[in-house]
Amino acid sequence: MNAVERLDRRGGWIEVLRPLGWLFGAVSAVRRRLYDHGLLPSARVEVPVVCVGNLVAGGTGKTPVTADLVQRFAARGWRPGILVRGYGKAGVSGAEADEARLYAELAPDVPLVAQPDRIDGARRLIERGADVVVMDDGFQHRRLARDLDLVLVDAMRPWGLAQGPRAFLPRGLLREGPAALRRAHALVLTRTDAVAPAALAELEAELEALAPGVPRWLTRHAPVRLRTLAGVREPLGTLDGQVVDCASALGAPAGFEATLRGLGAELGRVQRFPDHHEYTARDFADRAKQSDEPRRLVVTAKDAVKLRELASAGELPAAVCDEIRVLDVALEWVRGEGELDALLGTLPEGRARRERGALHEGLHG
Description:
This protein has 365 residues and is an alpha/beta fold.
């Protein structure tokens, strides 16, 4: 049982964390008001900043949304850069960050900086040629001013826990109270296909009451391909009717598992590791010893990056490598794509983009 599953239970020793959650919420509310009234300063950099964030700790689908945004900016002639917080081995931030590994595959030509100090990170991206910064997970990092705040809400667990209380860290997963949604430019509901229409309608009504007038856009994470760890593609239909195992190190593994079931797979052994878990051969040692018929072990693209590194180092048994299949998903807009494009078109040009435009005109003048 991982940490989120423990928090998702009511009663017992876990309730001793409630007072700490109340304290966290109080501090968060005071901090929010200090920023709202200008008593804590926000620094602005010389290019537009777009933030993809959320209210809760853990995954809501920020990576696919961020990747989608940088593709849209690139198509418009911008030079986007990605700014991430950075989580890595032994808590080290930087090139070892999980996000950096995955973005290196999803957006290999886009500069990325993993830096806890977001102001410094944004300036580093500008030095590397970025004329727009897309910040992954920075809604609460208000020291860096932004031009557009997109806040993601996971339709499966909008307030962090599926069944547990709507509580602040460490009792729950809330970083800020729902009232903070009012400062968003748009709410992006993710995994909307994984909940019943009635539940989605109820969530939308609640969000409208919490953040009146803030646009709500709907997305889904659509499976697009199945591949081996070496990159050989297989039809998604090969999962239909098959018993498969799955492993993930995600903040919200239920969405990944629901996607597999939606493809017709029956889940056998389900391994849930903590978010940002660093895999070792020990995690799969028992698979290498199993004597029954081997089953596919399906993982996410985020997991595959680390597992491939493990395999390249010769630390993952060949038999396990042969069983691994990677399920790639892509963001699919259900509602709001046109509004998003219109909003991106209103962003101001920063100094770097203006200077590049002037140079281009001078060369052709």
